[in-house]
Amino acid sequence: MNALGFQLGETRYIASVRRIIGYIVVLCLIAATYLGDVLKVDS
User: Fold this and answer.
1) What is the DSSP letter of 41?
2) How far apart are CA 34 and CA 24, in angstroms?
3) CA distances for 9 relative to 2, 4, 17, 19, 33, angstroms
4) Mapped to the 3 state alphabet, what secondary structure does the chain carry?
5) Radius of gyration of the chain from Cα atoms?
6) pTM higher than the cut 0.90
7) Which DSSP category does 43 fall into?
């Protein structure tokens, strides 16, 4: 296990984590918008 290989693996892991966080943020925004529309319709 060399330092370069570990660094590349870590970078790839961070990139995938950032992508997952990005998906979660987008889904939260869509859900918030959808819920906001539903609440507006109800009120």
Assistant:
1) H
2) 15
3) 11, 9, 12, 15, 36
4) CCHHHHHHHHHHHHHHHHHHHHHHHHHHHHHHHHHHHHHHHHC
5) 19
6) no
7) -
Q: What gap in Å lies between CA 16 and CA 28, rounded to an integer? A: 18
**Token code pair at residue 5:** 């290989």
Give the model confidence (pLDDT) of 1-43 as tens digits.
577 777 888 899 999 999 999 999 999 999 999 998 888 877 6
Look at residue 27 in the predicted model and tell me its pLDDT: 97
Please give the structure tokens belonging to residue 30. 């869509």
Question: Which tokens go with 42?
Answer: 């109800």
What's the confidence (pLDDT) of residue 1?
56
| C-alpha 16, offset from chain centre | 9
